Amino acid sequence: MLTQEIIRKKRDGQTLDAPELKFLMRGLVDGKVSNAQAAAFAMSVYFNGMQIDERVALTVAMRDTGDVLSWDLGGPVVDKHSTGGVGDNVSLMLAPALAACGVYVPMISGRGLGHTGGTLDKFDSISGYQTQPDVDLLKKVTQEVGCAIIGQTGDIAPADKVLYGIRDVTATVESVDLITASILSKKLAAGLDALVLDVKCGNGAFMATQDDARELAESLVNVANGAGCKTSAIMTDMNEPLASAAGNAVEVRNAVDFLTGTHIDNRLWDVTSDLGAELLMLAGVVPNVGQGRDRISAAFTSGAAAERFGAMVTGLGGPADFMENMHKYLPVAPVVREVFATSEGFVQGIDTRGIGMAVIELGGGRRVSSDTIDHSVGFSDLAGVGQLMDKDEPIGVVHALSDADADAAAQTLQNAMKIGDDVLRPKPLIRENIIHDND
Known about the structure:
Blueprint: H1 3-11, H2 18-30, H3 35-48, H4 52-63, E1 78-82, H5 90-100, E2 105-109, H6 119-123, H7 135-145, E3 147-151, H8 158-168, H9 176-188, E4 194-201, H10 210-226, E5 230-237, E6 246-247, H11 249-260, H12 266-282, H13 289-301, H14 304-315, H15 326-329, E7 335-339, E8 345-350, H16 352-364, E9 378-380, E10 388-389, E11 396-400, H17 403-416, E12 417-420, E13 430-434
Parallel strand pairs: 1-4, 2-3, 4-5
Antiparallel strand pairs: 5-13, 6-9, 7-11, 8-10, 8-12, 9-11
């Protein structure tokens, strides 16, 4: 095969077959396909799109450029993926809860992207925790604990790393075809029996409109099922932070408080329970989502999920007493300050993206991929839509490296919270459920 002829075919709007896509993706990893050719391919896909069968073939081809894990654990192997949001620390509670319900969760997660936080950055807050272990340790912890949350290794879908870097600098990131293959090639490399997707929509999501979110959700669900993994999606609202915290260490504290029952954000409980219930049903553990919610709830209220989380942290190199003494091990910002609204009234809306960008400005995210981040900074105790604010009730607490940073972040938070006299009901948290169309 000739790379340029495959590109020409896609450029002219024709459909590529599985061998052609396999040749291209293998060439990316082997160096036989140049960056210029990969950029031309990405741009051709961006403008001409792909059929579902093409997306499946591209996803499988990218997956198969690296290791595809296999398991013999005596139970289903499952995972969850979120398209990204602010205050979205669901994975920290969901993985151990699922493990407590008898399924296995080798969760391959990512770092922050744009204004959205990354699960790996949160775990980097924990002293000693290995976010990039080798495959042997991943398998050991998954088998012994039931869950392990780690990052993509160099042996998992390496073609995705190469192609994503090229897309990032050629204005081809916003392609549903390429987004689908990028997300699923890594997830399917984990050898999953079932996958659930949390597709966000709203002012804090990459897909701001419900129509765009639905298009991505349907693509992900149909391609994953086409590749042999039982998958469904839940579309959830991201017009306000999901947790009452946004940052890294602050979100870990929020998650531990949730797991131990010290403080539970209602929106976080609902999303985590629904995603867990959906996965348990997909995996055949329960016959319906109602029983799935009951199982997830029991994992939290019994303390079983908290126990699994602590064991996972220890198994991946973190402190053995992390759950009992998390404040000893999580970094604390030098400036911690309450922020109050400029007027009294009800929170009518939140610029969620603005809060995410403020975390980056504080040093808790990356402007470019090579940036190092400070895990201590961010916001906690964030107010939610519909909440009454007065002079005694802060809209949030800023965690900053300096007084100047705290001043700037406080101003951003005040601007992000829209205060008015009327009580507005929050948008529905669960927008839609997307299942595979067997037709």
